[in-house]
Amino acid sequence: MSSGDRLDSLREVIEQHNYQYYVLDAPQISDAEYDRLFAELQALEAEHPERLRADSPTQRVGGAPLPQFVPVAHATPMLSLSNAFADDEVAAFDHRVREGLAAEGEIAYSAEPKFDGLAVSLTYEMGVLRRGATRGDGTTGEDVTANLRTLRSIPLRLRGSGWPASIEVRGEVLIWRSDFARLNERQREKGEKEFVNPRNAAAGALRQLDPRITATRPLRFFAYGLGAIDGAGWPSSHSAWLDRLAGWGLPVAGERRRVSGLAGLLAYYQEIGGRRASLPYDIDGVVYKVDDLAAQARLGFVSRAPRFAIAHKFPAEEAVTELLEISIQVGRTGALTPVARLQPVFVGGVTVTSATLHNEDEIRRKDVRIGDVVVVRRAGDVIPEVVRVLLDQRPATARAFVMPQRCPVCASSVVRSVDEKGAAAVARCSGGLFCPAQRKQALLHFASRRAMDIEGLGDRLVEQLVDHDIVRTPADLYRLGLLALAHLERMADKSANNLLAAIEKSKRPTLARFIYALGIRNVGEATARELARQFGSLDRLLAADEAQLMQVPDVGPTVAQCIRQFFSEPHNLEVIAQLCAPGGVVPQESDAAAPADGVLAGKVVVLTGTLPSLTREAAGQMIIAAGGKLSASVSKKTDYVVAGAEAGSKLEKARQLGVEVIDQGRLLALLDTTREQPAR
Ligand code: IVH
After folding, report:
1. Residues 6+ apart with CB under 8 A from 50
2. How far is the CA of 279 from the centre of ligand 1 (A)?
3. With 70 as the cut, is the pLDDT of residue 680 above it?
4. What is the pLDDT at residue 215?
5. Is 400 exposed, middle or buried (0-12, 13-18, 19+ CB in 10 A)?
6. The whole model's pTM is what?
7. Ligand 1: which residues within 6 Å by Cβ?
8. Which domains does the chain have, with CATH numbers?
9. Residue in 224, 226, 238 to alter for ligand 1 test, most ligand atoms within 8 A of Cβ
């Protein structure tokens, strides 16, 4: 065999062993034997540099570190899942699905483990791995191709044949428990800090700018779905797709199962729950997905989560510890949250030193006193909470907590109001942005990764900027100069310059991010995105009245009122004007616009009356997803009026103006022409 042939066959043999080991979990040779083959390939490639190929197993670890990650816009958003904890929530999910599909019999579901790792997307073109990205905020992630290439469980080239010209595979990056134990052992030996849990270690590894560091961390990958896919003739069910992906050499959990109806879901949950401890990796629940892709498309999405899938979570882990003190945290909107300071305790994968007590009512209801022995709970990334008190262990010295009458930060009076859901009394500092704590939180929110993404503007810096009265409002950030920063502690010239550069870089946010960054009460990321899509520009949003605001999916009377209140506050308008002054922030309006290639691209649609099976919100989302714009009122610019039962004056007006009136069936038929591909 010529050395060239040997080279090719070595590449194949090594990838085959990777596949045996990482995908089939059935290694056929020892590690030493593998290393020997690998070394031989490296030597041959060094001898014949002209035969080096990017998809060679030796080329998984790239060269120089990146200066920074490049943002990647996801072709279709990477969504999250709604959660269910109790069986009746799963029953309600199954019920909604059957109702939504007007199904007679039981629904076929794909049931899968819910991996406790990080979502990533892998794009293969003509079978070759071209790009890997993190989930990011769901719309935009970061290009981590070089890092993902180092995972031997990710094929650089798909096996077999018949792949689409381009395919985006989605899945989870995680670290197996045994690998994690070894990783920490290594850290200990080197005298370096141990990782808290496999998920954190995986997250850290994925965000390394130097792929050579990522390569030293034992990351693995499991595929659980698809992004968009071009062309027709593909499998029509999710489970068939997973089988197809497995056939192409991608790791897919062996625990996946096609089950039928509610009973099938609950039996799967029991089974996997029983096997949880013996699985090689951490899971925090199971995921159920309607298996039929056409049915998935019909069910569609609510806000950031699909209607066709749900995560059934395992109960959160609990631990017992001592409550040392109750302190008060002042939030962005002034809400005073009592926080339990705890004797540190390891629970749910991390050491917990504090837990939320939510509010005064909650403290009273649970009868929590300072000095008590308490049960704390933590699940996933959720803030730990105090579940209950072990009353039989209450010390005689335990004392009750009293909510202060004045804000512990700014001494403004504390007012009580009922929270948004009308459920609990909230104590609030009345100081508004006069209160340094509220100012700090508002600034931190403004600068946060999912808002304006000003890197380096963290807790400590904001603390100093506000305490020294250098920055009062977000607009002040854009007027900062080196001189002002020079006075701050631990602020070398380099970090000051970096901060100024990061602030400069943040001047072109998407409109959605900008709206979110303003910190309007009850306007989270999803709502901000909808507002941006609906109104298209800041000026139009500012001019919208409550009725127009309520046309936006997710916006009800409370949220509409919060938005109006925010924009009628002169101080807020002043800050916005300063932010957007010449040379300042320019929200990118086009970025927020609807997809330009949808079947309703550029069309203005008005919904009126009650549709037979779609809620107004669902219909609105489908229209927006297809590139349409929703409008509250009918005019000559309206392209379609979708009319349901009891449609009134809008239908009348449409007829007068000669605007095309369609019903739900026609709307769905219109939208369906976009779907020669399985919608995901
Ligand atoms: S499907 C459209 N399947 O859970 C639904 N997600 O809360 C997209 N996850 O960010 C997700 N295991 O990182 C899906 N078998 C599984 C999963 C899974 C873990 C994670 C994923 C996602 C999060 C959603």
Report:
1. none
2. 18
3. no
4. 94
5. exposed
6. 0.65
7. 79-81, 112, 114-115, 119, 135, 172, 224-225, 287, 306, 309, 311
8. 3-60 (1.10.287.610), 83-313 (3.30.470.30), 318-400 (2.40.50.140), 434-579 (1.10.150.20), 604-671 (3.40.50.10190)
9. 224
